[in-house]
Amino acid sequence: MIRQEFSRVDPKRRAILDHRQKQFAAPAFQNVEYKHRLNFYATPPTADITLEQFEQWAIDRLRVLAELEACSFRNKSPAETATHMKPLLDKYLPLSSSTSGSTALQAERQKDHYSHFILRLAFASTEDLRRRFSRVESMLFRLRFQADDARERMAFVEGLNLDWETVGDEERREFAEELRAAGGGYPKRIEEESYFKVDWERVPELVESRRVFLKAGKAYVPGREQLSMVVAEFTSRLDKALELTSRALPRLDEDDRLTPILTHLSQNFTTPDANYSSSSTALPGADISARNIDTLSSSFPLCMQN
C-alpha cells in the first residue's frame, strides 16, 4: 500500500480555507469591450457602477420600453414606431454606430448592456413580467436591427454562430417550385436567393404568415427574412435567460440598497400605461389605476369631478 505524505483537511475548516483567495481574486470579467452596436446580452456585466447609475440607467431604459409598448397598443406601423421612438432613443438610450467615431461609444454600449440586466432582475419575478419584458425587448432589438448599418449588422450576425444550415444548390433545385410558392412567386430564378434551413419552432412568425416552405420539421427561410430569424433567436434566448434568472432570485442575498429600486421598477411596469411612458395620455383599454386617474379625470362628467 502506498502511503501519501500529506495531511487531510478537516471538513469543518475546508470551506473557509480559501476565503482570502476568493475575496481578493480578480473577477472573470471586468470592463467589456463592445465590438458591435447590437447585443444579445449573453454575458452578465461584472464591473462596478454607482448606485445612482444603477437606478438612472434602469429608469432611462424603462422609459424607452414603456413608450415602445405604448406604440404597440396604439397599433402604430413599424415606420411610425421608428419615427416616434428615434428622439426618445437618442435622448435616453443612444447607441452610435462603430463608424461614427463617437467618443462616448463604449459608454453608450455599457449603459445599454447594464440597463438590460438591471431590468432583467426587476422583471424576472413573475411570468407576466417576464413575458412583457421579453416582448418589448424583442421589439427594441428589431427596431435597432433594422436601423443598423448593413456591414455592422452582417458582422454581428456572423459573430453569433447561429445553428443555421445552408441549403445547397441541389436541394434548392429539388424544391424550387415550393420555395417560389412560399415566397409569393419570388424569386423568379431560385439561384438568385440564398436559403437557410432551421427547425420550424425557431421561426414561428414566418410559419404563421406562411412565408416559408416546411419539410420534415424544417423551415426553409430565404435570406431576405434574416431579420425574423435573428429576432426569433433573440427572443428564444432571452426567454430561457429570464427563466433561469427567476430561479436564481430566491438564492440571491437581499441588498437593502437594490431591492427597493428593483421593486419600484417592476411596480411601475405592471400596467400598459407605465409611469415612465413619455406619453401624456392613457392608452385605450388600459386598466384604471391611481397613476392615471388625474389624466382620465378630464373626460369625467361633472358629477364625477368632485
Topology, pairings included?
Blueprint: H1 11-14, H2 19-24, H3 51-73, H4 78-92, H5 105-122, H6 127-147, H7 150-159, E1 165-166, H8 169-174, H9 176-182, E2 195-199, H10 204-208, E3 213-215, E4 218-222, H11 226-248, H12 259-267, H13 293-296
Antiparallel strand pairs: 1-2, 2-4, 3-4
Keywords:
single chain; about 300 residues; mainly alpha; Transcription Elongation Factor S-II, Chain A; 4-stranded antiparallel β-sheet; 4 strands; about 50% helix; about 5% strand; globular; primosome; Putative DNA primase large subunit; iron-sulfur; metal-binding
Structure explained in plain terms:
With 306 residues, this protein is mainly α. It has a domain at 36-161 and 225-277: Up-down Bundle (Transcription Elongation Factor S-II, Chain A), CATH 1.20.930. It has helices at 11-14, 19-24, 51-73, 78-92, 105-122, 127-147, 150-159, 169-174, 176-182, 204-208, 226-248, 259-267, 293-296; strands at residues 165-166, 195-199, 213-215, 218-222. The chain has a four-stranded antiparallel β-sheet with strand order 1-2-4-3. A hairpin with a 2-residue loop joins strand 3 (213-215) and strand 4 (218-222). Helix 3 (51-73) packs across helix 5 (105-122). The longest helix has 23 residues, at 51-73. The chain is globular, with a radius of gyration of 25 Å. Residues 1-7, 11-20 and 280-287 have low confidence and may be disordered.
